[in-house]
Amino acid sequence: EYLNSKYGYNIDMTWFDKDNFSYELYESRILGSEGRKLTVSVAEPEDFMLLYPKKDVKFSVSVPDIDKNETGDFSVFYDYSQVLGNIEYYDRMAYETYMFGGNALWEIKNLNNPEGKKVLMLCDSFGRTYAPFFSLGVRQLDVLDLRKFSGSLKTYINCFEDFDAVIIVASGLSFVTITKSLFPFSTIAIGEATSCGTYFVLL
Questions:
Q1: Which of 34, 120, 122, 142 has its CA 20 to 30 A from that of 114?
Q2: Do 120 and 157 touch, CB atoms closer than 8 A?
Q3: Does 202 score more than 50 pLDDT?
Q4: Handedness of CA 194, 19, 44, 31 (dihedral sign)
C-alpha cells in the first residue's frame, strides 16, 4: 500500500487478502530458537503453517548458494525437508522451510506479472518469510541477506540499474544492531514500523 500511495506503484493488493490463500497446518512442529535453549521439558512446541495462493502463480527462481534453478508454483519457496518426516526439534527448524533457510541471494521472477516492478529487498531471517508473498505483486524480486552476501552491495545495485526500488525488511533488533554496517545509506524513508519488523524504501 505504501509503494502504491507514495510512489505510484500499481500492485494488486487482492493478492494479499487472507481469504485468497489456502493453509497447510503442521501440528507441534516448531520449538523456536528460545524454545530449543529451554528444551521441550520446559517449552511447548507450536504449530507451524504454510500458505499457498489460491490463484494460479508461476515463478522462476535462482539461488546460487544451493544451485537451485527452478520454475513452478508457490512451492518453489518451501524446503519441505524441514517439516516432513519425524519431528526433530534440535536438528531441524520449521522456520527454515521458508526460502530454504539463509542464503545470500535469491532472484525471483514472477512470470505472471511481466509488467510489474523490479525490486531489491535487503533482509534478515524475518524478511525471508515476507519475500515470497511480496513477490506476488512485482515482476522481479532480488533478495539479499547481507549477513551472508560477501560482495559489494553498491556494486550489485550499480550492475543492475533497472531496480525500481530498494527496500529493507528486517526485524527491529537486526536493524538497530547492524544497520550502520550493512545498510550504508544516508537517506531512508520509513514506510511503516511494526512490533516485529520495519519496512523501508531507500530514496
A1: 122
A2: yes
A3: no
A4: negative
Which three cell numbers, joined as nine digits, stand for 62? 535462482
Name the H helices within the chain.
2-7, 33-38, 125-134, 153-159, 172-182
The one-letter code for the residue type at 106 is W
pLDDT tens-digit profile of 8-62?
888 999 999 999 999 999 887 777 666 666 677 677 777 889 999 999 999 999 9
How many CB atoms within 10 Å of residue 153? 17
The mean predicted confidence, pLDDT, of the chain is 81
Judge whether 121 and 144 are in contact, CB under 8 Å.
yes
CA–CA gap between residue 54 and residue 192 (Å, rounded): 27
pTM of the model: 0.81
How much is the pLDDT for 54? 97
The three grid cell numbers given for residue 196, joined into one nine-digit string? 516485529
Strands (E), 82-197: 105-110, 118-123, 140-145, 165-170, 188-193
Instruction: Give me the residue label for grid cell 523456536.
Output: 32
CA 67 vs CA 41, 106, 189: distances in Å: 38, 11, 35
C-alpha cell at 53: 495462493
Mean pLDDT of 96-102: 86
Distance CA 172, CA 190 (A): 13
